Amino acid sequence: MAAEMIIVNAREEPPDGWDAAVFLAGPAPRSPEVPSWRPAAHAELRERWRGGRLVVFDPEDRKEVLFDYAGQVDWEERCLNLADEVLFYVPRDLETMPAFTTNVEWGIWHDSGRVVFGAPPGAPKNRYLLHYAEKFGVPTATDLPGTVAATLDRIGSGAARTGGECEVPLLLWRTAAFQSWYGAQRAAGNALLGARVVWRFGDQWGLRVRIRVAAEDRIKDDEMVISRPDLGVVVLYRPGPTLDATTVVLVREFRGPAATPDGRVHEPPGGSGPAGGADPLRAALAELAEETGLALPADRLREHGSRQVNATMSAHRAHVFAAEITEDELAALSSGGPHGVAADGERTYVEIATFGEIRRERLVDWAALGMIAEVLTESGIGEG
């Protein structure tokens, strides 16, 4: 697709689709005699853009029109949320371009994960903004070409989106978790009509969505989709004469959301650490070694498929694996610890319990109980 750039000025309606969208945030001149920096930004973007359709949201008026303050504020809020990247350029001049509103916008967006900050070295009163740019790893530049280049570098070639898809920024659109969820919705014939990022923390996010439910011919508003990277989980067990007498390996760890008598979670070892990347088996093996100290070769694990863990709220899945362990391995697991990645504040302890104890003493949550039951019943333990 040939490169195309569309400029959407203040209070104008955006097109129905694009590959990337940029909002030009920064001060506007207080009088017509003072030149704006935004035309030069248009030229830089047009020269450097190599993707498909790029939409540029410019909060300055295209021509002299009757100013509508409330309409302007609403338009800016809408288009800031539509943008894949918010390009902040702050050539502040306290007389002609004081950038008071820009300071507020920066305070809202600086930790969103989709901003770039630029300012000439001599522009005053930017120290505080630059401090937070450094703190949150925001790319910075000292001139407009560098700011534009940093913005487009983050966008890359973008991704084609139409309709409600345009309300999902590239930051989320490119994640495996979003694509897995959205792929399932599309396969069911449902259509995304709107979305708004509510929060983002690292690789976890919450999205408020509006969806047309094809099977029911209705629109469902204000659905909340929460997600994180998929989990790789390992159920280690030592068969007993019955299902309830089968030994299972758990890990105990403090987690803030735990509402258990001891304030900690009890579950099979697993997680989604960076060692796993997009490979659930690799993640499962890495988490097993980190949380229990037991390193197993990949061929020791059996795959039991994947399911959502809490489908009423979170889109992520748990990929469950299992391994039958030896008496020696069980004995080794019973000693030592704690385990975990200390640098990440992770501290785990191995727990050994029979399946009967896990059920009767309610040691695990329903999701973990289901994973364990699936593995043990599929393994044929207690049959005949």
Walk me through what this model shows.
By secondary structure, the protein is of the alpha/beta class. It has three domains: 152 residues, Rossmann fold (3-Layer(aba) Sandwich); 53 residues; 148 residues, Alpha-Beta Complex (Nucleoside Triphosphate Pyrophosphohydrolase), CATH 3.90.79.10. The chain has eleven helices and 18 strands. Strands 12, 13, 14, 15, 16, 17 and 18 form a seven-stranded mixed sheet that branches. A six-stranded parallel sheet has the order 1-4-3-5-6-7, with helices on both faces. This is Nudix hydrolase domain-containing protein. It comes from Actinomadura vinacea.
Topology:
Elements: E1 4-9, E2 17-18, E3 20-25, H1 38-48, E4 53-58, H2 69-82, E5 85-89, H3 100-109, E6 115-118, H4 127-135, E7 140-141, H5 144-155, E8 161-162, H6 170-173, H7 176-187, E9 191-201, E10 204-213, E11 218-227, E12 231-238, E13 247-254, E14 264-267, E15 270-271, H8 280-292, E16 302-308, E17 317-324, H9 327-333, E18 348-354, H10 355-360, H11 366-378
Parallel strand pairs: 1-4, 3-4, 3-5, 5-6, 6-7, 12-17
Antiparallel strand pairs: 2-8, 9-10, 10-11, 12-13, 12-15, 13-14, 13-18, 16-17
Helix pairs in contact: 1-5
